[in-house]
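cache lookup: miss for this entity combination. No prior model stored, computing from scratch. Input as submitted by user K.M.:
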Amino acid sequence: MNPFTHNSPAAAPKAPSVLCRSLATLIRVLPLVAISLLLALGSAGCSKKSDDVIKVGEFASLTGKEATFGTSSHEGTLLAIEELNATGGVLGKKIELITEDNLSKAGESGTVVTKLIDRDGVVAILGEVASSRSLEAAPICQRSQIPMISPSSTNPKVTETGDYIFRVCFIDPFQGTVMANFASKTLKAKKVAVFTDVKSDYSKGLAKYFKEGFTEAGGEISAELDFNGGDKDFKAQLTAIKTAAPDAVFVPGYYTDVALICIQAKQLGLNVPLFGGDGWESDDLIKIGKEAVEGNYFSTHYHPEVSSPKSKQFVEAYKKRFKNQDGSPKAPDAMAALGYDSAIILAEAMKRAGTTEGAKVRDALAAMKDFEGATGKTNINEKRDATKPAVILQVKGGVFKYVETISP
Amino acid sequence: MDWLQQLINGLAQGSIYALIALGYTMVYGVLRFINFAHSDVLMLGAFAAFFLAPVVGTILPPQSYLGAFIIVIVSAAICAAIGILIERLAYRPLRNRPKLTVLITAIGVSLLIEFTCQHNAVFGARTRPFPRLIPEHNFHLGNIVIANHDVLVPIVTAALLALLWLVVQRTKIGMAMRAVAFNPQAAALMGVNINRVISFTFGLGSALAAIAGILYAMRAPGIEPLMGIQPGLRAFIAAVLGGIGNLPGAALGGLLLGLLETFAGGIPGISNYRDGIAFAILIFILLFRPAGLLGEVKTEKV
């Protein structure tokens, strides 16, 4: 006889005693409920709207799979806000940046952005790098009529959500074409295999535009395989890619997955160049991938080597403000520069609108032309995207080396 | 020759699932409950090796088999202690409560470990590069590439399965484990120290998880606090497929799942359905053998 599932008939209670017992339980639980209610009310009471600051919300992947994206982007944004506040803020008020982490997880962004808008009462939202997560927040901002600026989400669908959603980077149809031309002209590839992360809107979009561009340029897609972001074993798909014998492999993924893909491709003897998009740009790509990522290429938004005076100024300020783990000055990457630009362009729009009211800031953002930022000139087009050149970098000797700039 | 390469890939991946599944199935066999924190012990094993590798590297030349062996043994010992501690603190106080309570607690322990480790003061959530523990060699047979750790993983799994089998069938503590699994009350009345047997079971299972975690990290050298979830889930299913509570069954289930996944993943066009295909086949198998491949159908006396 099993004592765990033993049910003695004597334990079956009569109806009145059930009532008594549930009442007793209720009385026992009541203080707990009351305390949690009080706590909830208390914290809500703390966030009363104050008029002496402008609250700006930011959501970022500060931890988790794409932690370096969120961290870089956040540091750029933070630097911009600190500089703005040091020179007197905007409209005579200081800006208060409220940052929320979405853990690089699907489903979190909606929650934190709703919290930023409803509880904190922010007037604008800045974020995110990953398109899938920006797409979670965009409908909420649109519905609440709060302007949202994504620093570096490149999937076209993000700004298609509505007229309150902007971005300060180029979009994937452009990036896909750039990489397609790069593959056929610079790499001289005839056959390319595409390895897509089906969990990510960014990866799927970029793969699609690359395939269109590459076949248009006369190339052939020799194999199409998929993975799920967060997988650790890619050998099954890479073996199939190797069998197709491509000249190069396009991997539009994020750096943690890409690093492991490069390692396992080398192990399988797949010795052709791998190349991808801006999702590759992270120091962790080199830290994890080591020599396996050497010689591979990717496109991104910016490189400190090619810079305007404004950009140099940003690089200096960033290096002074942020340090690597070993204490050396940290060089900004594209995510940091775009995070910076998203914040200063928002401040500029508020200045031009003369108010923080959503609709007016939106109109000012939509009219933004030739705005000088850390990544060069930003022109917001009629689709609320920025028209900007792309740069191609190569991993060489453990750093990202500048290869070329391609203008739209 | 594509399929031969996939066979090698699948065997290596499946052996890791098998090794994790052994831990699940052993704890289930003795205690009749699923230790969901098993997959997190796996992660802790990988992190233990991550922190031990530089220390061992100062004494022995880096990337030596002896060094790797020491790292694996010490990590396994650390994780065995953690496993025993988890049982002591979280599961033992609930041993005479309904099974569901313990199950929910196991999920709670799992989440507690995952989110504690994600905190910046602990490991942090970003992916860390896992150091190379053994030198890498690739053997080329025509078009086929066999990495030395692809060979190592199945060997280690087979050796550990054999060792486990010996412990359970041929030693005194193994006999005690079987007695507790068969009937804890009767075993206690016969003088078996149940607490000690259960602690031993958890320690052994956690040590296996640690070894599996290190092998897993060697194949995919990027480790983070949530790395155990995916292989843990697959191994749990492998254990059910093989017949939960049955050691060779768990190994068989793990191998089968690894092979299915690899072959499905290597087909262009449908590679993103690889889990779907693998799991559809598993459901099919379980329809015909509800107790798993090697499991026995038991009629429960009420």
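stored under new cache key. The CA atoms of residues 105 and 185 of chain A lie 37 Å apart.
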